Each structure stands twice: as structure tokens, then as C-alpha cells.
Amino acid sequence: MQLTNQQVLPVEQSEVWAALNDIPLLQKCIPGCDTMTSIGPDTYEVGLLAAIGPVRARFKGKLFLEDIQPPNSYSLKFEGQGGAAGHGKGGAKVWLQSGGPSETVLHYSVSATVGGKLAQIGSRLVDMAAEKMAADFFAAFKVAVREKHPSAHTASQGGSEASEAAAGTQGEGVWQRLRSWFNRIFSSNKTT
User: Which of 5, 18, 65, 101 is the most exposed place for a label (fewest CB within 10 A)?
Assistant: First the structure.
């Protein structure tokens, strides 16, 4: 399995780097992760519950950080056992690029192999599960970084977004705002 992508985060590079090295924050963002414990320098023991296609299992493994270049990049290796479900191992490269005063582009490239029952379910299902886990992780990571650095997120909003946030619509999604706008237009047309 190969997975390469990038995410744009609305905070400075040093803040993203700090979040990438904040173990409780990472544990909270990794889907199904219930333990992440330091067992040595840049070495962690990880436990998580994962579903890959029809196979659902509890995995225990180790995560090793290598080639650490603060605040720009690091590599990691991982290996895990899921009992009868099988095993997996692989690596990832994560690197950061400044996208402006309050924006960072996080690039990542992951490769992994699986064995046992996991290998029997097919690479397509494994790839789909990996993509979903990555998407879920980065959605949670963006939220966690924004919560940790709310002033950076507020400063990066444009003029109209900032005024909408001040009016209390910040929590609304785009579709809710459009629906509200259309309702106001059509309800004002009915009264005339």
C-alpha cells in the first residue's frame, strides 16, 4: 500500500511541529487508538482497534521516530500484530512547508504491508481502510490544532468570514449558511 497526500493547516509551522510531537494530542486523533506510551527515546508502544473490510481486530505495536529534523520533518516506522487478523508494518515520511504567515502545508507519504487474514481480504479494501484512517486522522488533527491555537485560526479568516464568526455563524457549515440565505431571500419575496 502506498499513500501520498498533503493537508493545509491554518497555523504556523512551529505550532504544527509541536502538535506532531504532542503524544496525547496524537493519541486523541488516531482513529481507534487507546494507548500510546513512550518506551524509550523516540519509541512508542501503541494499541488500537481497527476495522479493515470485514476484519476487525485489536492491534498492538511499536512506533519509531527517525531522521528527526525539527521543525521540518521526520520519518517513522511502525510494526503491529493483530492476533488472528494478521500483522502490518511500514513507514512514513512527514514533512512541513510554510504556506504563509499563518499556514503550513503538511506532506506525508506512507507505505505499508500486511500479512495474515488482512492480506487475504485484498489490497483494494486495505487501501480504502488506510485512506479512511488517514482522512479521519487529519480531520481530527486539524480540529485539535485549531483548538490549541484558536488565535491563529481567527487571524487567518478573511473579512467576511470573520464578520460571520462574530455574528455567531462560525459553527455552521457552508450548506447551512446557503440554506439560511435562500430562506431569507424567498421568505422576503413572499411578503412583497
Answer: 101
